[in-house]
Amino acid sequence: MIPSFLDDVPQPVVKGYSRKKRAGVRRAEFEGGYSQRSGTGPNAVIASVRLQWVQANAPIDAIDDFLEARAGKEVFYYRLPDDSVDRLWTCAEWDVNPKGPNAKELTATLQQEFDVV
Fold first, then answer.
1. Tally of structural domains, the chain
2. Is residue 69 part of a domain?
3. Rounded Cα–Cα distance for residues 112 and 99 (Å)
4. Would 8 be classed as within a structural domain?
5. Is residue 111 classed exposed, middle or buried when 0-12, 13-18 and 19+ CB atoms within 10 A define those classes?
6. Distance from CA of residue 88 to its chain's centroid?
7. Of 2, 27, 44, 94, which one has the fewest beta carbons inside 10 Å?
8. pLDDT tens across 24-38, in order?
């Protein structure tokens, strides 16, 4: 079973995020500067999202533990704040920084996945 992001703890409030999209394109180059392009399949547009949370230590530690347990290779469901559905993501890069004695900031980059589930 694929887990949802932090099923067992309250969802922290996202302080901010940005969504970046990349289109998968195959390109064939021909003589004379001509080229032909095609998409890489039905899911040719892939999103990556950089999320940032500033919270008390416990929720940040829970996020950190969740991401570490998946080690960048296991997919999980997550719903972005402005989205209406859960989507599949992986996370191979995140950092945690202290923000005083009782709070931390966690910034994570999620990569959208299209696994068959």
1. 1
2. yes
3. 29
4. no
5. middle
6. 8
7. 27
8. 899 999 999 999 998
